[in-house]
Design a protein that fits this description.
341 residues, alpha+beta, four-stranded mixed β-sheet, two-stranded antiparallel sheet, 13 helices, 6 strands, Glutathione S-transferase
Amino acid sequence: MKSILAAFSTQYRSTLRLSSVRLPRPTSITVTNGRDESRGLGLGLGSDDAMIGRIPAHSLQQTTIMATKADSGKHCHHECSGLALETVKQRSAGENITLFAGCFCPFVQRVWVALEYFQIPYHVHEVDPYKKPQELLDVSPKGLVPALKLTTYSPPRALNESTVIMEYLEDLSTQTSKRSLFPPASDPYARALVRLQSDHINRTLVPAFYRYLQAQDSEAQIAGGKEFHGAIEHLVELFERAEREVGGTGLWKEGNDLGWADVVVGPWIFRATNVLKHYRGFEMPSGKKFHAWLERLLEHPDFKKTCSAEKLYLDSYERYAFNRPNTSQVANAINSGRGLP
């Protein structure tokens, strides 16, 4: 565990910076690296740990936090691309479950991955959540995606909120494909550990992602990067705990299939590799065990088929990266210090 966390500390402090696009005369802040623990990470690097990260700890000197250029005014996309678009086209419009989706939304993606994993027939209906069409409001009172329309009932019924939908699909799967994202019901403790992982993701990691991305001044971005890094670090601790106590859960354990926490966190980890990398210079930790989990997650067929081309995410998240007014209900909640809607 120490070697993994040392890798996080080394990689994080060596790569924390803003976009590689620099102003001619940027403002800058010097960040001391190496063994300096003054940033509160509490992760001293011993000699056995120093080479775990991508850059040797003894070679780290300074990283400069640079200002980014002006907002280019890009807008969010309204249709999937790449593998995700192929998946949309493959799903029949005649199914009894309709997923109301926004192509760039990570909350939608976690439900979408679950539908694919459970092998439950469904249809994708892409909407513009910013315009909040009446058909969306009919199934999601706040006008938020994801939402499900269930035409097996007369009149049709609806569900919203991503984790509630995932729980519904988990229960539905026990009657159909018999697949589950949880450990067996015969091991309630292992299932409880998975719920602890999920609780941390929803309460801490997801809000930290948005605070980091929406932070505008250098001090706030450094703080946001530390917070997001710490959230990943604690998730690893929870994965490690499950490995010690119950033999491992989800994809953290080599040879296992997709798990509940993998699906819950996957969309934000994926966006950290493109959106946060592009707009905040963020690099994922390169510890061996973490990297193996990351690769298993991002390469899992049911996850990959819900991913669009990178341009879609970079364009759609520019509004978050420059914290435009009324970017979304999520962004407004982050700016006001409220809980996510």
